[in-house]
Amino acid sequence: MVSNRPEPSGTSVTRSSDSNRRRNCFANKFLPYADKLDDESQANLESIKNNLGKVVAMREMGPAVMMSIRNLVTYIKLYGMKFSKEDHVKFVQLLLEMLVIPKLDPDAINKISEAIFFLLRKREWLSTDDLQIEWRPLYDLFHLLVSRLSKKGELFNTTSSMEGNLQCAIQVCTPYFPPSATQEILDELLSKLQPLDNGSGCEVITILNIFLNYEQGYELWFDKLMAIWNGYHNPPWAGDFMTMYAVVGNKNLGHIDWEPHIPT
């Protein structure tokens, strides 16, 4: 799942120095027992790492691992990202490996996706030098469970919350896709594009909206998709295109010449 990185063993117990701790919850310093939070948070973090290590080593994907993941999310909500960058990367790697386990329970997918979102929701916390994520396993999972393009999705009892959390998890992973991912995603999806889809929207465009990395590689699709958009009047998928171009513009301020696309 994660290429050219250490194995996802994010369970080793190492006491982080203050200089290595990530973003803390700023409001905690106003608590009456703020001076005790360092010891309290460190004890909770070590417990989470130990418990995750045990359940993964025992291949326990039932309630035990779900409890550990829920405790990790609760820890982030209470203390912020109060762990080292190394622990941060290992948590993400471990959860990504767990997410793509075949035949995983939908509730487990829901909770793991939520945890991944909380770990990666702030882009500045990790750089692409720290973490790289392969897009294909995430695409295969999304295609199996959510996509209308796959009839197999009808065999799974998925909920809207699970689909939403999985989508959010994928979207926060996209900045960490390798540079080659954009062209690979376009090769996979553009051949399936059906602009005249009479449904609520063209699903290929929706999937592109979820999987494309807007920070790099937009040159590969910007003009091509803009031409498609200009070729159809008020299509049901126009909202997805609006979102795509709004996000790519926000992520690449000053790098895109919008003049040719502004109506005169």
From TrEMBL:
Entry's Gene Ontology cellular component terms: cytosol; nucleus
Organism superkingdom: Eukaryota
GO molecular function, one term: peptidase activator activity
InterPro entries: PSME4
Gene Ontology biological-process entries: proteasomal ubiquitin-independent protein catabolic process
Protein's name according to its UniProt entry: Proteasome activator Blm10 mid region domain-containing protein
Species, as recorded: Anopheles funestus (African malaria mosquito)
